[in-house]
Amino acid sequence: MKYPLNLITLALITASGSMMSSSAQAADFSVNKANTSSVNMDKFECKRCPDNTGYRGSVEPGTVYNDSGDIHSANALNSEEGAHGVLNADLQYRGKTGYQAQVQATNLGLSNSSAHLEAGKTGSYQAEFDYRQLSQYKHDSAKSNLWYTDGMLTPSSDVQTQELSLKRQQIGMGLTAGQLWGKQDYQVFARYSQEEKTGYQASSLVSPRPTNFGLPVDATTDKLSSGLSISGQNWQTSLNYQYSEYDNQIDSLNLPYLADVYAPAPDNSAYQLSLAGQYLFNRTAISAQLATGRMMQDEAVIQTSGNPIQNWDGQVDTTDGKLAITSVLDNRLRLGGSVSYSKRDNKSSTWEFAQLESDGISGAFKQNTLLDTEKLNYKVNVSYRINSDYRLQAGYDREELERSHSDRDQTDESTVWTKLDIRSFANSNLKLKASFSQRDGSEYQASELTSDIDNPQLRKFYLADRDRTAFEAKFNHAPAGWINISFSGLYAEDDYSDTTLGLTSSEDYSYNLNVDMQFDKRLSGYGFAGQQWFESRQNGSQSFSASDWSVNVDDEFINLGAGLNYTGLMQDKLSLGLDYLFANSSSDRQVVYTTTQPQGDYYSYNHSVEMYANYLLSDLMAVRLGYRYERYYDTDNAQVDVNAIDGLTTLGKLNHNYNAHQVMLSFSYQLR
What we know:
Layout: H1 5-16, H2 22-27, E1 54-67, H3 74-77, E2 82-94, E3 99-108, E4 113-121, E5 125-149, E6 152-181, E7 184-206, E8 210-231, E9 235-248, E10 253-255, E11 258-262, E12 268-281, E13 284-297, E14 314-328, E15 333-346, E16 352-357, E17 360-367, E18 373-387, E19 390-403, E20 410-422, E21 428-441, E22 466-480, E23 483-495, E24 502-518, E25 523-540, E26 549-568, H4 569-572, E27 574-593, E28 595-598, E29 602-616, E30 621-636, E31 656-671
């Protein structure tokens, strides 16, 4: 599509606040001063440019064989155990009349794969088609004495085994068309997509004892979007419509002796209509957006004693708006600000229901409560370039959020931050950021919905007063032409100083180190290391009064990796590669109640090694042989055998401990 140069300038100023250099400004070479009205682009021809019409790209068919005793390995190896065909491709076609097409395929034939096809004519139209498959495997030997068949959960005297996994198949298609009429560029688009989600996931019910089972999943989500955009010399506007519909194929679940023991996720739909625009006035960009929508749910309700309705007439209306301004005052100073508004207005039906208590029905009647939210955000920022080596930025953000029928009607959070970009070091770049935020609000009191079951001293972490301090640093250095080093670090602390019961403090700190090396024209390598720690403390009350116990949670994550690639063997026909990855995560919980009582850890680690060889049969053909090994182990102390606890049926211990192997052979052909 064709875009006026002023519109490109508008996007640059809005997104990054780029500023012209002083020499460009003095000579008046700014992009928004360019005049192309007298240039006939249709007759432009580069006589020395290479001919790029025709077909380009590569096609790589292959086969994969996986050997593993645990289906969980398919998450890393992209396919289940056994042999599978696979196809990778990246093809382009460009015609002399402006027609062009592209086909991309990634791991087609495996459990996680994608494909993309697009075709059209430059400046006129473009059609697209997408396919994607996503699979997530939990365990292939979950235990249960409830088995799902045709809407019925059938109890079994023998414990049965089933697979817990979710598979999603997504398809999408779209069409975009545009035309330049006069000084305006018009574009219209329409896109449709569908996702089918199937499988089983862990769930539970009480009938009459707590029982875990594999909940069937069979749902479809349809999405439709369309829009119109018009752009001129220094402005752009668009009108968009989005619609989505969720259809759950699983009805309420039944036991042979009891109906409607489990309610499925209800069918629902939603739509949104939005209007957006941008305008460039000299070196000031103004953008605005207004959207309105509705979420609806009118699925049948499971009938119980005291239920007065057949269908739930659920409706939530949404309103969103945003106004942002960015102004480049001169070559050093840029100012920006925005205000946004969001409202969720619950207009669902209200009815009087018999109130349920833990020991039965109380007999009292009360209306269901409609929960609304309203949020207002303000942001202002300034950026000042001190000189070519230093740039300083600062800003202030504020969020005001109101909730109806909540423990706290209103919360306000203010954040101040500053950034410093330093380029004075040779072949280096240092970025520093510091921020401080404070959240408070209206008087805290238990709501009517929870006043009988919540301790009045309890503070929910997302509503409680909180002070947050954070520091971040990023450093990039190239000490020599063959090596580049980058480092980043983060520290954040949350202090809930006014909380007696609940989350009282937390810390999050991490670092990441990356090294890229090009030893010579044939040998290259890389290495990385990263760690992250979460530490939190929470107070509780066993006696429903003052704090009498606490829990400390420590989480740690480690990622290490390295790799080498060597080319030029066997008269530049053979290249070899090696990649290694190690990942480790652990969680430790300590409960203090008169004495320290460890609650057991969660621990997992993963070793992954990949080796490959690529051999050129000719300038256009190559063969690739790869081998991958994965060692995976995890253990969770919270998991117990099926009937290890009286009165509770679990899915068993769903830990993993396996070695997995993958061999892949592929052939690639280049089109030139």
